């Protein structure tokens, strides 16, 4: 049996090609590869032949350059599958090979819309999936191939990709089904080096999962057993981690993806790596000057710890030098080569001011140092403290800078962001130019705790750039005598949902004097058109005066005594009366405050006043709260620094807290 899984070395073939083609012929060949094929990689005569039909158990073999694109679809080498090309991925030469490059945002190959449509193309029990890949960047998750659903505790299907910068193979089986499916993630120990070619493979024989990287066993597990457990609605894709509510694109290239209904032996993977040593050992040139793309900023402060982050133009290791006073006598480091750096500082003194400086060094000896900044660890319950609020900065760096500078001038201990931190969560440049650059002075000295909005689109950049308590899309933290509950209102909030159950549990056990929640969408708003037409009354949609999903949390807020619920989404400022059981109640009521004026286009109030609305203002703005013991003072400022709303709350403390 002929096996085209083993490829010949490449450089000799490439040298022959370069001497045989004239300049004109090379240009014509390049044009044809763009218009007729996915792309061509020279990895041995057998690659573009058709021995696949003779390979036992080979279900699909998508190889770059294998077949022409016709009507936006491409056929695999076995002639059993046609994938739809989504977006406009481009063929690009990367060192000794060419691959199809995905942009990491909205490009992928769709093999089948769901499991039924995939039919016999998906493995049922035993399987092998392998691929040649080259990554430009990594996020929290990514997949080169897969058919999965991984939403909260609902886990089904399989994928081959990466997790947190390391290659991974994931799978859920019927034998390990806990009712919602249970997926095992195998992760390699070594981090991915960006720009290099890798051969990766995952196998499952009905009992054991194995992950291979460049011909070597990287991890294995016997946690799964029996047939593969699929979610019927899951799409089968190449080039993306895609399920019902998440999309994480693959920013990089693939040369081929093969899926079998049998387990290939380890010797096959070792042979592939041996035959293609020149490809695996190729080092991408890097002439990029080492510099900060995102200057140092702070994350997740507690009384004894804080996280320092930054991003560099090329992979580097990072060291943070810090101390209560100069000279710097303390050091913390991340020895992993990466672009986005995350360095936790631990064992700090509560309520103390530290000074810090970040130093990054690339493997070729380039080194950069940041300016010297400062941070302060969290206070205990016996000291006054303050925090800022802003929302919907989106894509308006001038206003974002005005809000950030206004907040920093007030010197808050931290800031909460009500979501829509950028306009398009998948647009990396927006994170750099529209958030981090205009807000640098604030974020280098003050921690920002965000909630995720709809404009982030659950993109991996949100999870890459923020370091938050797990699982990050919802979380809680305490500061002083207050507890904050940060919620993802893009996801279901029905009674019995993951976040609803978590929130009730956390609220029930909270002993904090002040309880604040924050989610992007409003429980109450008198906006003119987001939740029904309140200007002309046109349309069949009945006004809801708020987001139906977020409103499902109101009973919990009232039951457990939430003081203020913050939100964004509506690009205005609005404060409600204290509301309890849909009436105004000065003693038991919850105050709902919309702070969505951080940069998004401003919106309008309805023509008639809503019964719950106490103060509405159409203006770019930010808010500020000071707290001590049983009293908080609230202020709202426009971007000129003019105070336009304020109130004070004082509550009776139980005897145990006096």
Write a structural description.
Pfam families: Laminin_G_3 (PF13385), Metallophos (PF00149). One of its GO terms (molecular function) is hydrolase activity. With 658 residues, this protein is α+β, with helices and mostly antiparallel strands. Strand 26, helix 6 and strand 27 form a beta-alpha-beta unit. The chain has three domains: 270 residues, Jelly Rolls (Sandwich); 85 residues, Immunoglobulin-like; 272 residues, Metallo-dependent phosphatases (Purple Acid Phosphatase, chain A, domain 2, 4-Layer Sandwich). The strands form seven sheets. A nine-stranded antiparallel β-sheet has the order 2-3-4-7-16-9-10-11-12. Strands 1, 5, 6, 8, 13, 14, 15 and 19 form an eight-stranded antiparallel β-sheet that branches. The protein has twelve helices and 40 strands.
Task: Kindly list the characteristics that best describe this protein.
658 residues; alpha+beta; Jelly Rolls; Immunoglobulin-like; Purple Acid Phosphatase, chain A, domain 2; 3 domains; nine-stranded antiparallel β-sheet; eight-stranded antiparallel β-sheet; 12 helices; 40 strands; disordered N terminus; LamG-like jellyroll fold domain-containing protein; signal
Short description:
The chain is α+β, with helices and mostly antiparallel strands.
Write the layout of secondary structure elements.
Layout: H1 11-20, H2 23-36, E1 58-63, E2 69-70, E3 73-75, E4 82-86, E5 90-94, E6 97-103, E7 108-112, H3 115-118, E8 127-135, E9 141-151, E10 154-163, E11 166-172, E12 183-187, E13 197-204, E14 209-213, E15 216-221, E16 236-238, E17 240-242, E18 247-249, E19 251-260, H4 266-275, H5 277-280, E20 292-299, E21 306-323, E22 330-345, E23 353-361, E24 367-369, E25 373-376, E26 385-390, H6 397-410, E27 414-417, H7 428-436, H8 440-445, E28 447-450, H9 460-465, E29 475-479, E30 482-486, H10 498-509, E31 514-518, H11 548-551, H12 554-559, E32 564-567, E33 573-576, E34 579-580, E35 583-584, E36 591-595, E37 613-617, E38 621-628, E39 631-638, E40 643-650
Parallel strand pairs: 26-27, 27-28, 30-31, 31-32, 32-36
Antiparallel strand pairs: 1-19, 2-3, 3-4, 4-7, 5-6, 6-19, 7-16, 8-13, 8-19, 9-10, 9-16, 10-11, 11-12, 13-14, 14-15, 17-18, 20-21, 21-22, 21-23, 23-24, 23-25, 26-38, 29-30, 33-36, 33-37, 34-35, 38-39, 39-40
